[in-house]
Amino acid sequence: MAFPNRLLEDIRARVPLPDVVGKRVKLTRKGREHSGLCPFHNEKTPSFTVSEDKGFYHCFGCGAHGDVISFVMNTEGLSFPETVERLAAEAGLEVPVETPEAREEAKRRADLYDVVEAACIWFEKQLRAPSGRAALDYLQARGLRDETISRFRLGYAPDGSGGLAVTLKAMGADESQLIEAGLLRRPDDGRAPYSFFRDRVMFPIADRRGRIIAFGGRLMGDVKAAKYVNSPDTPLFDKGRNLYNFGAARQASFETGQLVVAEGYMDVIALSQAGIEAAVAPLGTAMTEDQIRAVWRLTQEPTLCFDGDTAGQRAAARAAERVLPLLQPGKSLRFALLPPGEDPDSLIARQGAAAMRQILEAAQPLSEVIWRMEVGAAPIDTPERRADLQARLEKRVEDIGDATVREHYRNAVRDRLWASFRSQGGKGRGKVAPQGNTGAHIRSQMRQQSRRAQQAILAALIHHPRLRDEFDEALEAVEFEPDLDKLRQQLQNLFAGHVDLDFEAIQAHFTGSGDESLLQGVLEKQVLVLAPFANPRASVEDARRGLSHLIDRRVHERLRQEVVDLGRSAAASADKAGLDRVMAARRDAIEIDRQLADIDE
C-alpha cells in the first residue's frame, strides 16, 4: 500500500522518537541527544544515539540508522503498512484507504514532479539567454555570485512568451498538467491559458527531499504590482507546510545546532552566501503551526529574523502569539530584530556577515518578546492599569498548551511584575522597562540607549562631514553627555577651521590631541551595527535620513520629559490652576507621543 508523503512526514513530526525508542532501550539524555545500548547488536558500551531534533537514531557500532518508522519495523517485526497504521493511530492521524483512485493520484503526482523539474531547467536556461540579460544583471547587482545563482537554481520567466508551454508539451506534458502544476492559468472568461509567471526572476522552491515543487517569481525594478508571487497551491505544493531552502538548510542546521528563519528568498540566499547556510523562509505568509513544528525538528530554538520596521515588529508579534499553544519543554523561538530600514540582504551588503552574526547572537527569547508586547501596549501609571497589564500577561500564559511550560511562564511573569512594580516604589509613574528586574538596571538600560543614540549622531557626522552644515543648528537642541559634548564641540571647532575636512584628517587630529579613545568609542562596531546610516559605506542620503530621524527623536524625548516634569510639579498644587496645568501637561505629552510615533514610522 502506498501512503501519502504528507502522512509519513506528519508521523515523523508528531511521534517523538525518544519515547518510542525508550520503550525498548534505557536512554540517557545528553544535551539534546540520548544514548543507550544498541538494540540491534550486543554491546557493553553505549554507541547508540537518538536525536529528537534530527529525527533519527544511529549506532556507531553496527551502523544501524533510521527514523521512528524504521525503528518500529526493525524492532517489532511489523510490515511498513502495519507500522504506519499503528503510529498514525498514536498520533491521531487518519490513514487514507488505498483505492484505484489513490494509486492514480500517486502516479499523477509523480508525473507532476517531472513537469515542474523540467520547468525549472527551462527557467535556468532563460536566465543565461539574451532575453534574460536584465534578470541576470539584476541578480548580480544584488551581490549574488554565479555559484550562488547556480546553487539556488535561479532562473527567468520571459514576458508574454509561450516558450515554456511549447517546450514542456514537446516533452510529453499536456496542458492540464501545466495548469495543475501552477505553470499555466486558465482565465475565467474562456480565453486560452497563459503563463502564470511572466517577466520575473524565478526562485525554485524544493520540498524536504530536494525535489522542485513550486516557484516564487519577482518583478524587477520599482513597480506598483506585487513584487513577488508564488505558485498557487497544487498537489505538490502547500505554502503553509513548506519552507524555502528547508532541505538544503537541514544539514547545516544539524552541524551548527542553529537555524535562522528569515522573511524572504533574497534574505535566505544572502545569509547562505555569507556563510550562514542554516536559513529558511516561509512562503509569503506568517509562520504556520506546521512550519514551526518543522523547524523544531532541526533545532530546539530557531531564530526568527525580522526586518527592523513596523511591519517586522508586527510579524514578530504574530509569530509569538502563534507559537504559545505549541510550546514544549526545551522548544521555543528566539527573535532577532534588525535596525530600522534593514533586512538581512541589505545589512550583509552594507556591513558584512560579522554584523549579521552579531545581531543573531543578540536575539531575544520568546518570553522577552511577549513581555515587551504587553508592556508597550498601554500605559501602566495607575494601579488599575498595572492590574490590566498583569491580566493581559496571565491571559497570554493561559494560551500555552503544555502544563509544565505554562507553570514556569506563570512564575516568571509574577516574579517580573513584582520586581518591576516594586522598582517604581509603588507610585506607578512611567512605564515598566522592557528589561531588567530592578530600578537601577532599568535606569542603566535607558542611559545606555541614550548614549548609543548620541554616539550614532556623532559617528554619522564624522563619516559624512559634508552634512555638518545642514545639522549644525539642529544639534544645539540635542543634549549630550559631558564627554560626548566635549567631542561635539571639538568637532564643531575643527569643522569651522577646515572647509574640506575628511575622515582621515579628523582621525589624525584626535590622535594628536590625545582624545583618540573618545573618538574610537563613538566609532565602535556596536554603534555602527545599531545605526547603519552612520557607517562610512552608507550613502549620504541614508545618513541624512538617519540623522534627521535620530535628532528629531532626541529632541522630542527631551520635550516629553520636560512636560512630564511640569505635570509632576503642578500635581503638587491642590488648587484649580495646578489641576489645569496637569491636564494641559498630559495633553502635551500625548501629542508628543503621537509625534514620536510619526517619527518612527
What does this structure look like?
The protein is of the alpha+beta class and 601 residues long. It folds into 4 domains: 5-91, Alpha-Beta Complex (DNA Primase, Chain A); 99-237, DNA primase DNAg catalytic core, N-terminal domain (Alpha-Beta Complex); 376-437, no CATH class; 440-600. Helix content is 55%, strand content 9%. Strands 1-2-3-4-5 form a 5-stranded antiparallel sheet. The chain has a 5-stranded mixed sheet with strand order 13-12-14-15-16, with helices on both faces. A hairpin with an 8-residue loop joins strand 7 and strand 8. The longest helix has 32 residues, at 540-571. The chain is globular and about 85 Å long.
Q: Could you say how many structural domains there are in total?
A: 4
The largest sheet is: 5 strands, antiparallel
Low-confidence stretches: 426-439, 595-601
Count of strand segments: 16
Q: What fraction of residues sit in β-strands?
A: 5-15%
Structural class: alpha+beta
Please report the number of helical segments: 26
Radius of gyration: 29 Å
Q: Give helix % range.
A: 55-70%
Distance between the termini: 57 Å
Give the overall average pLDDT: 81
Strand order of the largest sheet: 1-2-3-4-5
How are the SSEs ordered, and which strands pair?
Elements: H1 5-14, H2 17-22, E1 28-30, E2 33-36, E3 48-51, E4 56-59, E5 65-66, H3 68-76, H4 80-91, H5 100-128, H6 133-141, H7 146-151, E6 155-157, H8 163-170, H9 175-180, E7 184-185, E8 194-195, E9 200-206, E10 212-218, E11 228-230, H10 246-256, E12 260-261, H11 265-273, E13 279-280, H12 289-296, E14 303-306, H13 310-323, E15 334-337, H14 344-351, H15 353-361, E16 364-365, H16 366-375, H17 383-398, H18 403-423, H19 439-463, H20 468-475, H21 482-497, H22 503-513, H23 516-522, H24 525-530, H25 540-571, H26 576-600
Parallel strand pairs: 12-13, 12-14, 14-15
Antiparallel strand pairs: 1-2, 2-3, 3-4, 4-5, 6-9, 7-8, 9-10, 10-11, 15-16
Helix pairs in contact: 1-4, 3-4, 11-14, 13-16, 14-15, 16-17, 17-18, 19-21, 19-25, 25-26
